[in-house]
Amino acid sequence: MTAVSYADLHRRMAARIEAERDTALGLLGPSASTARAAVAELLEHRTFTYPLSVLPLVVHAVETGALEPALPLAAVHDLWWTSACCLDDLADSQGTWAAGDLTDNQALIATLLAGTSLPLLVVQSMRAAEPVRGVLSAELVACSVRAAEGQLRDLRGEAAVATRESVVAAYIGKSGAPFSMITTMSAELAGADRRRVELWREFGDVFGVLWQLLNDQEDIMSGRDEDLRNGTVTYLLACALEETPSVATERVMALHSAAKTSAQARTDLTDMLLAPTVLRRYAKDIDEFRDRAHRILDELGGHETYRPVLRDLVDQSSRILLEPRTATASPPG
Fold first, then answer.
1. Torsion-angle region of residue 78: left (phi > 0), alpha (psi -120 to 50) or beta?
2. CATH number of the 6-317 domain
């Protein structure tokens, strides 16, 4: 097999990943037909722009040359992220979120099942030695704790005390934790030694930060402005607070507060976030995260066919989508 991009690899493996996901749903058993149908509906209505379910396959293949043994972990990855994204949507929906015929309460129960019990069932049913299944189960539990900590930090983030370092700490939890979970689990399943397992864990953390930064940019590019509407303290906001002259800091803070309800404030704040000095700082930091991810991959080495797939994935997640703007002078409100 010649080296391909992660998107090409997903096209080759998509049918098998979907089949593995169906197998996972079957683990709920005949007495849980309602629960199985609810989770299936969540999966059907939650589609991802980027097919990252191939990540555990690639990590395992870098270690061993084989993709297929990690297929159950691809299902775990899909289930975990479906649950996390649906919970996030439910929290932000203000009564407008929908997944097929599921009510909010039904969706909430289904998301909890998809993100906790079902992944554990998948791991416990894998064809792996009992000690390995125990380690993988422990990683799932640890990820839930780290992700909850990161999400709570994100929800409680205060712009007045935000720094780039504090935002990264939150990102490592909310996005780094699930990615480091799946890269670590894949390495453990492949039989990697402890040093390599920890390198894969570090790679997952760094990749998670990069992916969150890309997600933040796409929120602005799409015009949804969910971060501004929710008052989220993003890395870009932290860059603006550090790079904006002190005399303008109060304006950034006022706009950030007003942006929750004011379209004009969102426009004006976006102009300030996209100031050339702010974007230069932002782009420089993204480059540093990308270079760190590449250094880890260089240290890991591994199967030459699959290493380029991960490098492609890192490069895709490190893109700068935003372009600089000139700030307006409109008052918040």
1. alpha
2. 1.10.600.10
